[in-house]
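Risk register update: the risk of archive-format incompatibility is retired. Evidence:
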Amino acid sequence: MHVLTIGGAGQLGHFILKHLASEGHELSIIGIGTPPEEGYLPIGTHYIECDVEKASEEEIQRHFKGVNTVIHAAGADGRNMFPRPAINGFRDANVKPIPHIINAMRAVGASRLIILGSYYTAMHRVYPDLNIPAKSAYVRSRIEQTKAAFEHAGEHLSVAVLELPYIFGAAPGRGTLWGFYMDAIKNSSGSLAVHAGGTACITMNQVGLAAAHAALYSKGHKCYPIGNINLTYVEIYQYFANALNVECDIIPRKPEYFRAKAIENLKRLQASGMESAYDPLGLLDIEDQLLYIDPLPSMQALNFQPEDILTAIKESVDATLRYQGRGPGSLDSREK
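Archived output:
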């Protein structure tokens, strides 16, 4: 089988392609700029330089020739921000390319599309009263992305959306997204207030396995909220502190504790004309909830096993210390 991964040069792409290569499949990736360093991708992976967000449908179709399955692992995520209203930027990145991709797939006879999406779309289905899309232009774009994919695919093209929670681990020679956790702990002076909620967590290797298996076997139109273990933010921060060998008292706080800082962040964003992936005030209510799932159904459906999340967090810490990393979108991160 010939599998093409859009965004395959990223961290998750490394793990997805590793598992596909182990089963002998032909591999191509689409990326922007120069190919990754030698050894990062399996031997024989064909690299195609193309910006899918800007490419014409004809150009995409040309790159899809001979492909059976497409994994879409690109687009904008929670690290991005755009000029207000940000939903326009997120739609351009996440929703607009979908019809072009599916039309090109149909033209070349590809039959299966896998999209790496957001865990919060699953949480919106489970907890509609939280109204997460109203608090996040990013999540709204992911919901629209899934709807567009299902509608354009029709009955004869399979679409699987993997809804990804917190992801730990590290690809070779790369930093991670968790530098902001580590900075908070190192600058804590012995105690750190964090949100009282929690989330599902998973390793990069598990995401790679789940995506590879979905690419080979998924049928119909399905959303898979995937996870390995549910943890509170207190537990996650404590594991990071332990990995850093920093003694830190992690204290859960309710949303009101963080409100003043959130208002300050919101004012700075508004003054700059920018909007982040999540509304700073709306995010307070979201991160106060225990947004958990039963991981077993997706583990069984996508054939991946439990892994040690503590080892994966340690890998994240070690990689970030060595190679640095970039966390959620903020004016501060843009200024550095």
